[in-house]
Write a structure and sequence with these properties.
A: 314 residues; alpha/beta; Rossmann fold; 2 domains; elongated; B: 314 residues; mainly alpha; 14 helices; Peripla_BP_I (chain A); carbohydrate binding (chain A); Substrate-binding domain-containing protein (chain A)
């Protein structure tokens, strides 16, 4: 009995400060406009830049408080939905959200909208009408990637005949489907004799995208290009190409710009990066949330733009 | 009669047959399968799971389970990366990471033996807590910018075989010797067969349980270091879901979750069989979801086949 009491006391001592801390934070934010910024994953440099954008907006506006939420990995869709539900429950003034949950996020988002909380989606659409959507034009990004790859076929004197593979982050997500679709459509036009393989999905795992790229290299002798449609796939593919020393035979074009991708671009392993403006997504996402709260009419889609970046552009 | 005798003298016979069949079929279906590059890919891709599977074999033979292996992998990966980034010499960083990871195993052993917490619960809690700790200390971000000598280990070859594969071989040999020729190894089987009987016959259960979980955590920590060299980064989400892949490899290798049955050789064969199916599927461009069905079926049939055999022998 004594032991149990002791255990309970220890447990209470561990738990109370946690709650106390939470309350303090809430009290400090009193009076300021609360914007909840929900991102897809905390483990990736891409989303860290979205967070930086949100924090910068927070710093620029004394009466705004931006709080960041998000699961550790993009594959944690279930957890992402839970986080969203909790955020809606906590009743912020506005929500800026990027999520892979798609249909799964709709009930919570509609719940927020019905309570008069504006919801701005960034990066990825969800299948319902939200206040506004800020994102990269992913179809255009995919097309630009295909154009860049073809330029490098010409620069390296590679005949536009072999096989091109796509290493795709996750299955069934609109952003990725649009990026791959844009790439495939444009490449078919620019290099009609190239065989384009179906996308290989890797659960946004760097180790898996590396393994997949290794297997592609072994399987296809006539592999002339790999398109990696986000940062983690770009990292994995770059590792595989670097280790196989195939940077002059296999042209790699990737989306995004995390630290390792930039290094790979400098080393010539990745030929071109299609860089999105994540900072802008975070910053403008919050700015649009404020506009919505001020009662302004917002466009349903805002293109945040991409930069086609080669080694010499760094 | 002869058939039965052979089966009991060499329980891994069926696994060898399956593996040989797989190799024959795949080498006919794809002329790349037996190429040097593909075999090296296969071994490299298997080695990380393979190292942990050796440790897990002891746990399962003792009628326990360890769900924390993937989190311990990430823990050692983050520790070794952070230490090296802070300028600590590579060998010292590795030793500290191995010790830190192994100590987690000891803690779980204490919980299981002294606290009488079922292994499933202790390591389930451990898995979640350790992953949380990893996210916390890494800020859920990749740790990049590691020394090139360390990253070089992933590609460095000795006698034509990658360094990380040698590490796997070494762990296999150590595991094999411990299981077959040491008192600790025999104790593990005794505990798995009947813990009470083992205790009555004078075996110190506590020390052995600590040893079992410490060794499993040790192999997971080695895997974490291998993962870090392979990815060239400390990745906090790495190893997620590995516990199930590892348990699958051990079970396909003939170990029984009710304890006392299993061998290192069986585990090695189980690991290679699963990896070969995945690798072959990639080479032949088989839909990955179909591969999941195949691997899942293999796990069930391995156990089903074993049970039928036992019934027939009765």
């Amino acid at each position: 009995m004594k032991k149990i009491t002791l255990l309970l006391v220890i447990l209470a001592m561990m738990v109370i400060p946690v709650f106390a801390g939470g309350q303090q934070e809430a009290a400090a934010a009193d009076g300021a406009t609360e914007i909840a910024l929900i991102i897809k994953a905390t483990d990736s440099g891409f989303w860290q830049k979205v967070i930086e954008g949100g924090k910068a907006f927070d710093a620029d506006n004394a009466d705004v408080n931006v709080t960041v939420y998000g699961p550790a990995s993009e594959a944690d869709i279930e957890e992402a939905i839970g986080i969203l539900e909790n955020v809606v429950e906590s009743g912020p003034d506005a929500i800026v959200i990027a999520t892979n949950a798609g249909e799964g996020a709709v009930p919570a988002v509609e719940n927020a909208l019905s309570q008069g909380i504006p919801v701005i989606t960034v990066d990825t659409k969800i299948p319902t009408d939200v206040t506004s959507h800020l994102a990269t034009d992913n179809v255009l990004g995919g097309k630009l990637a295909a154009q860049a790859m073809v330029e490098f076929f010409e620069e390296y004197g590679i005949e536009k005949k072999g096989t091109v593979a796509i290493v795709a982050a996750v299955a069934g997500v609109d952003t990725i489907i649009e990026r791959d679709g844009g790439f495939i459509d444009e490449l078919k036009v620019l290099a009609p004799e190239v065989t384009i393989l179906d996308p290989r999905y890797v659960d946004n795992d760097i180790a898996k995208s590396m393994t997949t790229a290794e297997d592609l290299i072994t399987t296809y002798d006539d592999l002339i290009g790999i398109y990696a449609d986000n940062n983690h796939t770009g990292d994995g593919v770059a590792l595989a190409i670097e280790q196989a020393e195939l940077q002059d035979e296999v042209m790699v074009v990737a989306f995004d710009d995390d630290e390792d991708e930039i290094i790979a671009l400098q080393n010539g392993v990745i030929k071109t990066l299609i860089i999105q403006d994540q900072f802008n997504m975070g910053y403008s996402g919050c700015a649009y949330a404020m506009k919505a709260l001020a009662g302004e009419d917002l466009p349903s889609f805002v293109d945040t733009g991409v930069k086609v970046t080669k080694k010499e552009d760094l | 009669m002869l058939k039965k005798l052979k089966q009991s003298q060499f329980p891994e016979r069926n696994l060898v047959i399956i593996l040989v069949l797989l190799i024959v079929v795949l080498s006919i279906a794809s002329n790349r399968f037996l190429s040097y590059n593909n075999i090296m890919n296969l071994l490299r891709q298997t080695s990380i799971i393979g190292v942990i599977a050796v440790g897990m074999t002891f746990v399962i033979i003792s009628a326990g389970i360890d769900l924390s292996v993937g989190s311990v992998l990430a823990f050692s990966s983050i520790i070794v990366a952070m230490l090296m980034k802070a300028g600590v010499p590579i060998p010292l960083s590795i030793i500290v990471a191995l010790l830190a990871g192994t100590s987690l195993g000891v803690l779980m052993g204490i919980l299981i033996h002294n606290g009488s917490v079922p292994a499933f619960i202790a390591t389930l809690g451990g898995m979640t807590m350790v992953r949380g700790a990893v996210m916390l200390i890494s800020g859920a971000r990749k740790i990049s910018g590691l020394p090139p000598e360390f990253k070089h280990f992933a590609v460095a070859k000795f006698l034509g075989i990658p360094g990380m594969v040698w590490v796997w071989f070494l762990v296999i040999i150590i595991g094999f010797v411990i299981a077959k020729y040491t008192i600790f190894g025999r104790n593990v089987y005794a505990i798995g067969s009947n813990e009470e009987a083992a205790r009555l016959s004078g075996i110190k259960i506590g020390t052995n349980i600590y040893g079992i979980y410490a060794f499993c955590a040790f192999t997971s920590s080695i895997a974490g270091i291998l993962m870090t060299t392979r990815l060239g980064n400390g990745v906090p989400t790495s190893g997620t879901g590995y516990e199930l892949d590892v348990i699958a490899a051990v079970v396909v290798g003939g170990a029984s979750l009710s304890g006392a049955v299993g061998s290192i050789l069986g585990t090695v064969l189980g690991t290679i069989i699963i990896a070969t199916i995945r690798n072959g599927g990639n080479l032949l461009g088989i839909n990955p979801f179909i591969l999941d069905i195949l691997v899942g079926g293999l796990i069930v049939f391995a156990v089903l086949f074993d049970q039928l055999n036992k019934k027939n022998n009765r």
